[in-house]
Design a protein that fits this description.
This protein is of the alpha/beta class. It has helices at 23-26, 36-41, 50-59, 92-97, 111-119, and strands spanning 2-10, 14-16, 45-49, 70-74, 86-88, 104-109, 125-131, 139-140, 152-159, 162-168.
Length: 169
């Protein structure tokens, strides 16, 4: 199993603004100019938190919501229901450790999933795109426990206004 984070942050490291919105991203550029579609083709499973799901749900139509992957939303909401997503309320690390070894897993967001997976050293690849935007406040990507984590820089790309770093364990 390989665990990936693929996503865009601001220059000051935020996934979303202080209201969990992504307008800063939508106003910067389109995912069509990045490697998002090619990346998605390699994935078997998507995992996201409830707030990320709410944003994804707003920006995609029902028919094109990650159609070729198993899709999971981590939520404590008991009445969560969606035809293309399965709700999960267990702890993220134990859930990921049960995924078969031949699967590629995309952690779509957010930081409440990223932090425990980083703490457990479960990420294999980070594909981080940086938007030329400063928010000053917002939802940070990295909130893991203190401790040195090193990655190797594998590639650097530019897609329109986005700078992309591919980092491997």
């Amino acid at each position: 199993m390989s665990v990936y984070f693929y996503g865009c942050v601001t220059l000051d490291g935020y996934l979303a603004d202080k209201n969990h919105g992504l307008n800063w991203l939508y106003e910067t550029g389109s995912p069509e100019i990045t490697t998002a579609a090619k990346f998605y083709e390699k994935m078997d499973i998507t995992i996201m938190g409830r707030r990320t799901f709410n944003e994804v749900k707003e920006s995609l139509t029902e028919k094109n919501v990650y159609p070729t992957t198993e899709n999971y939303v981590f939520t404590h909401e008991e009445n969560f229901s969606h035809p293309y997503f399965t709700s999960v309320s267990e702890e993220i690390v134990s859930f990921v450790k049960k995924i078969p070894q031949d699967k590629n897993v995309w952690i779509v967001g957010g930081n409440q999933l990223v932090a425990p997976l980083l703490n457990a050293d479960l990420f294999d690849v980070f594909i981080l795109q940086f938007a030329p935007v400063l928010l000053g406040k917002g939802v940070p990507l990295f909130t893991q426990e203190e401790g040195l984590k090193r990655f190797k820089l594998q590639e650097v790309h530019q897609y329109g206004p986005f700078a992309e770093l591919v980092l491997i364990k």
